[in-house]
Amino acid sequence: MSKNTKHVPVQHIIGFLLSIVLTLLAVWAALGSNLPVAWIIIAIMALAIIQAGIQLFMFMHMTESSSGGGHVPWNMMFHGFVLAAIIVAGSLFTMSFGFHHDHGSHTDHQEESSHQHD
Amino acid sequence: MQLDEFFVTGEPLIYGGMVSIVLVTSAIIFLLTYLKRWGWLWREWLTTVDHKKIGIMYILSALAMLFRGGVDALMMRVQLAFPNMNFLNSQHYNEIFTTHGTVMIIFMAMPFLVGLMNIIVPLQIGARDFAFPFVNAVSFWSFFFGAMLFNISFVIGGSPDAGWTSYTPLAGAALSPGPGQNFYLMGLQLAGIGTLATGINLMVTILKMRAPGMKMFDMPIFTWSTLVTSFIIIFAFPILTVALALLTIDRIFGSQFFTLTGEGMPMMWANLFWMWGHPEVYIVILPAFGIFSEIIATFARKQLFGYKAMVWSMILIAGLSFLVWVHHFFTMGAGALVNSVFSVSTMLIAVPTGVKIFNWLATLYKSRIQMTTAMMWSLAFIPSFVIGGVTGVMLGMAAADYQFHNSYFLIAHFHYVLIAGTVFACFAGLVYWYPKMFGHKLNERIGKHSFWWFLIGFHVCFFPQYFVGLDGMPRRVFAILPEWMPLNVISTVGAFGMGVGFVIFVYNIYYSYRYSKREEKGDAWDGRTLEWATPTPVPFYNFATLPEINGRDAFLSMKKNNETTFDEERLEPIHMPSNTGQPIIMMAILAFASFALVFEWIGLAVIGLIGTLIMMGIRSFDYDDGYHVEVDEIKKIERSARGL
Ligand code: HEM
Ligand SMILES: [Cu+2]
């Protein structure tokens, strides 16, 4: 009665391993490398974009043609971008209008950390 | 670590809790062994992938959580009734308002609604199960273990005490050392996996598995509300996941995202939390709107007025819900421009909500209303919710909010929307769909008693809180001033009234199980939508056959055309998924890893994570494609269910 379809999901395994490797790379970039901060940020961004590509092509059937491109989740991708924009722009907007982040002045810092210690 | 650091010691109430946990657990184990039900439990429930059974497990757990959160609430109300009460000390009070809020929102309201969606949505759209039944089981167990992990905190390790909003820097490692806050982080993270997966699962199910001919704008309104909700879940929950992960890394591995020292930004937590948190409140109210719409249309015996307007207003609410989060921290010190922008966007939400209120009223207008219990919950919802909504708009005015914020005025507001909206909807939906789930109705007379106790108790409890809030009583205080006493006493009386209502509700489940007339047909309320077309009890494959759907209220036209979901001519073997123990095992291992992480036992946590990965690997190479139900068997099942 039950029929079995055996086939090893090669794409998924490669995608999974690649995702792990890329994540470890990002961790190393942030913690282990001695790159300047700007480069760390750029590197992490680049790795993230590659990750997203892997997700879309190796897991989300982007390239399957069975339904004439119907597998490309345009709608969700569009909303994903809108939401990312809201999060980033919205956070900048709310967090930088009216707040003062005085991380620059050294005296402040010292005071804070000496509080921590006693 | 010493044993007396592991267990919470020194509190009589908590010793009582421990004793009752031990007693209840041993009673359950004894009963299962005595009645030889272990095998049954494992085969029929723990390993099931049937959306109806998973839904029932969600609802049972949610009722248990409602009980737990309710006991928390009553303890708070006792402490707040009189000045100088010594029932709870300040630490214990902090822990209780934290667990109360978290349990009610994350482990009661959402699972209750998800449970109803689980059972009803596939039936409403003519599907045989979820798109991903295995994932559905994983979701349930992740919620279940997340809830257990969170709840165990009050006897092991100590409960979180920084509020359900867990604001940093208070919730950070410096000011809240120990496992308490980690329980919050890991419990929510674990349950969040399930919520996100359910959102995806429901969305795919609704988009891809509708009955032949059912167009989007033919879908029952509860299914529409579920679709919109799953959209919000998919876009809001990742924000929570990231925020929780960052705070976890802060607390356990010493990073500085939300700390006061280093380059941390404590306010970023509030920002991220409410970017999820505000959509979250719509996640728990939109399904409630859907439930009320179904019930009102059924018992007003009319088509829902303004169906399209209802759908579009939900979509609009969903979109706006991502644009208002700052109204939760108007007083945090952002400038006038920021506050004004979010003040306006907040007030805008009242517009689509108002549209819905008027549509319900128009549906009721000149109809012949049947006063069933489910309908009474729905009718009571409308005015009660309006009070909550109007005061919400008051809170939305940034300048005025400087007065209202963190006072009991706010507490009254969100209980008016959450209880009159979500909780009433859970009760109404459970009563309404009960015959479909269990094959008999809940007793109407007892149901109405429980309704009146709960409704009156609710208003007596929370209406005075608006005024005591305006008198200056802040939230999250464990002692009141004498001048606030009269209103607080009234409030406490009301809270116990709600408690009585809840007890009667649960008693009604037992009473009806014993004495209610069993349903013979599937159509208990002369319904309009497809779920009522199935026989009761619903066969595990739901629909033997389905007619071509054209138009809304599909079952209404089926009844007119004498069609059923059992057309012997068109029977074909049905493909069903097999039961599996993998989801519960996988999530139990992940729960173990989370528990280890709560106590910062990194080695054990890694072992648990590896175990989870192994389980995922096993699943990836699992080639069980399910089985087929043969035509003869379908005939047998349908004939006996339909008394043919
Ligand atoms: C018997 C019914 C209930 C009573 C008597 C009750 C009472 C209370 C009280 C007294 C507080 C204030 C604690 C404080 O800040 O000092 C509170 C907070 C809260 N309640 Fe309820 N409640 C009830 C039901 C519910 C339900 C059904 C929900 C959700 C669906 C809910 C969600 C919350 C939330 C989110 C908070 C805020 C917790 C916090 O700020 O940390 N409550 N409740
Ligand atoms: Cu809000």
From TrEMBL, chain A:
GO molecular function: cytochrome bo3 ubiquinol oxidase activity; oxidoreductase activity, acting on diphenols and related substances as donors, oxygen as acceptor; proton transmembrane transporter activity
Biological process per Gene Ontology, one example term: aerobic electron transport chain
Matching InterPro entries: Cyt_c_oxidase_su4_prok (IPR005171), Cytochrome_c_oxidase_bac_sub4 (IPR050968), QoxD (IPR014250)
Recorded topology in the membrane: Multi-pass membrane protein
Membrane-crossing segments per the record: 12-31, 37-59, 80-99
Cellular localisation: Cell membrane
Major localisation: membrane
Leader sequence residues: none
GO CC terms, sorted: cytochrome o ubiquinol oxidase complex; plasma membrane
Alphabetical keyword list: Cell membrane, Membrane, Oxidoreductase, Transmembrane, Transmembrane helix
Annotated EC: 1.10.3.-
Catalysed reactions, as listed in the record: 2 a quinol + O2 = 2 a quinone + 2 H2O
Function: Catalyzes quinol oxidation with the concomitant reduction of oxygen to water.
Family named by the database record: Belongs to the cytochrome c oxidase bacterial subunit 4 family.
Protein name per its UniProtKB record: Quinol oxidase subunit 4
Species the sequence originates in: Alteribacillus iranensis
UniProtKB/TrEMBL annotation, chain B:
Parts of the chain that traverse the membrane: 12-35, 56-76, 96-121, 133-156, 183-207, 227-249, 281-299, 311-330, 336-362, 374-396, 408-431, 451-469, 489-511, 585-618
Catalytic activities: 2 a quinol + O2 = 2 a quinone + 2 H2O; 4 Fe(II)-[cytochrome c] + O2 + 8 H(+)(in) = 4 Fe(III)-[cytochrome c] + 2 H2O + 4 H(+)(out)
Cofactor detail note: Binds a copper B center.
GO cellular component: plasma membrane; respiratory chain complex
Gene3D superfamilies: Cytochrome c oxidase-like, subunit I domain
Membrane topology reported for the UniProt record: Multi-pass membrane protein
The EC number(s) this enzyme carries: 1.10.3.-
Primary residence: membrane
Subcellular localization, as worded in the UniProt entry: Cell membrane
Domain Cytochrome oxidase subunit I profile: 34-550
Keywords: Cell membrane, Copper, Electron transport, Heme, Hydrogen ion transport, Ion transport, Iron, Membrane, Metal-binding, Oxidoreductase, Respiratory chain, Translocase, Transmembrane, Transmembrane helix, Transport
Pathway field: Energy metabolism; oxidative phosphorylation
Cofactor: Cu cation; ferriheme a
An individual GO BP term: oxidative phosphorylation
Tree of life domain: Bacteria
Family: Belongs to the heme-copper respiratory oxidase family.
The protein, known as: Quinol oxidase subunit 1
Source species: Alteribacillus iranensis
